[in-house]
Amino acid sequence: MANQQEVKVPVLGEDIKEVEVSFWLKEAGETVKEGEEIVEVLSDKAVFRISAPGAGKLEKILKKEGEKVKIGETLGVVVGEP
Q1: Average of pLDDT values for 1-15?
Q2: Residue 52 CA to chain centroid, in angstroms?
Q3: Of 64, 61, 65, the residue nearest 77 (C-alpha)
Q4: What is the three-state SS of the chain?
Q5: How far is CA 61 from CA 4, 78, 82, in A?
Q6: Domains of the chain, with CATH numbers?
Q7: Mean pLDDT across the stretch 11-15?
Q8: How sure is the predictor about 1, in pLDDT bands with cuts at 50, 70 and 90?
Q9: CB under 8 Å to 26, separation ≥6 — which residues?
């Protein structure tokens, strides 16, 4: 069975509670490497890039560009081989 990992918004600072998805660097269906930057998010103070939690395929993009998301929310899903 395939290994599924969620791409989550990490804690980016004590006072940051919510970010906006700026743009996806990868599209759904594309192959990603562990640690590769795949999505950019914006807070009111800075721009952050979030990396893939593991190698595989970016199976789903759950949050679209322009959407507001809270810290800890899932942005997308990476599915890798077991």
Answers
A1: 90
A2: 7
A3: 61
A4: CCEEEEEECCCCCCCCCEEEEEEECCCCCCEECCCCEEEEEECCCCEEEEECCCCEEEEEECCCCCCEEECCCEEEEEEECC
A5: 13, 9, 21
A6: 17-69 (2.40.50.100)
A7: 91
A8: low
A9: 32, 36, 38, 39, 58
* Amino acid found at 8: K
What amino acid occupies position 44? D
Q: Report the range out of 11-15, 41-45, 73-77 with the highest average pLDDT.
A: 73-77
In which band, very low, low, confident or very high, does the pLDDT at 40 lie, cut at 50, 70 and 90?
very high
